[in-house]
Amino acid sequence: MSATPTRRFVHTRSISVEAYARDDGLWDLEAELTDVKEKDFALAVGIRKAGEPVHAMRLRLTIDTGLNVVDAQARSDWVPYPGHCDSFGDAYRQLIGLNLLRGFRHAVQQRLGGTQGCTHLTELAAVLPTAAIQAFAGEVTRPRDQAHEPDAADHQEAGRRPFQLDRCRALRVDGPAVAKYYPRWYTGKTKQEITEGQGK
User: Do 175 and 169 meet the contact criterion of CB atoms below 8 Å apart?
Assistant: First the structure.
């Protein structure tokens, strides 16, 4: 049996997103990406000391409860090429008008991919749709078992399929989780069909 290989820590990339409900009914998503080396790191512009960020970048989107982007701002505090990497933050205002759940990542790549934007800010934008969904849970939306007696909130959402369905394996509409928690939207086999299939 081979011995467990030893490891040497060299780098940390951190991505964080904070969500804020504003008193004007809008929401701010504050996303930050940092890259830090555990030892001094040679850049073309000089040495970046251990513990000092190679990248420290922020992207803030302001969205409404329909997940439409109404404002966008980018800021780069630490970059490998000062005066260059941090010279086009306004480019990310092109995200205004997009919807986080309707082709957002594709549109981000079209508008800001490659040489049109910053690789890291563009990557950071990609985490915001699911972060917004998590932020809204319990605040703007709530899980509901469609088998229960509908209340006022359910009537308000009547006819609208929960947005999380068919977005991951666990919540596929033909799966057991949807059958249990969202039976109205379940498309898989019924118990009768399963029983009949076993009898063949």
Answer: yes
